[in-house]
């Protein structure tokens, strides 16, 4: 029996192992009940007594040595597996973190809040009315006669006969005056709807209505309040002008322009070479409107105005297409 030859066979077998699965197979072929070492142990019976003792001891030592090699190798491969797993799930905590994208208020919301802030500082309070409005509040009570062009189906979204999506915030004036006695000093911000769509019109847009009613309220009060507003909103050097106009619910009526903030009045594409930008409609509340809500036009007077929020935002941020506000394109919105 050649123990050293057997040992070199065992060593060769073990050294050809390269992973844990092979290790198990090789272990069985060497140490198993039908393995090479058991085969040799079986052969000991055929030897004489002295040799039996000698080879018995030799084979036992070889078996123990082999056992130990397998234990060591098993530990080695298990360690390797563990390291591999750790490498796969390793996180570099020294890497710079990702900066989360922080949401912002929509430019229309920002503008509406800024307009509201200025009027609150001038002693106005905020009133609200419904988006779905009756024909009465949207038209009738505002002295808009039945055949007025503003009632045309092309402009107004009718929900059913007598019910519309409000085409302006002016109906809030009526609701407020119906529910309280003078003095009144309110603004009413909100969405309005018109069947219209191009670079300067969207089917839904926003207005801020204003109404001030008391004894002796004059056109010069309107001018004073709006001058302060324009200076706060667009800068202290921004001029404004009143242009005679017509609204059924005011008399006299005026539209208000501000000096073009792009060209400072010299004339450019944005102001269509006029040097002026229109921002709102206004006037002195029509006596007929006062009568409808039960106020005495001999006792009180008032002014009202209605401002386009998108218009103000476009001027403020230099935007030339109103539809940009409603595409919800994050590249556009994140600039404000
Ligand atoms: N409601 C008008 C519109 O949408 C704007 C307006 C004009 C409102 C004059 C007023 C006002 O309160 O007095 O075109």
Quick tags:
41% helix; 3-stranded antiparallel β-sheet; alpha+beta; 2 domains; BirA Bifunctional Protein, domain 2; binds 3,4-dihydroxyphenylalanine; single chain; 336 residues
Q: What best-fitting shape do the alpha-carbon axes yield?
A: rod-shaped
Number of strands: 10
Hetero ligands: 3,4-dihydroxyphenylalanine
Number of helices: 11
Radius of gyration: 45 Å
* Arithmetic mean pLDDT: 93
Q: Strand order within the widest sheet?
A: 1-5-6-10-9-8-7
Note poorly predicted spans.
none
Please name the CATH topology of the largest domain.
Answer: BirA Bifunctional Protein, domain 2
How many distinct folded domains?
2
- From N to C, what is the helix and strand string? HHHHHEEHEEHEEHEEEHEHH
In CATH terms, the superfamily of the largest domain is Bira Bifunctional Protein, Domain 2
CATH classification, class level of the largest domain = Alpha Beta
Known CATH architecture of the largest domain:
2-Layer Sandwich
Question: Beta-strand percentage?
Answer: 15-25%
Termini Cα gap: 91 Å
Major pleated sheet: 7 strands, mixed
User: What is the helix fraction of residues, given as a range?
Assistant: 40-55%
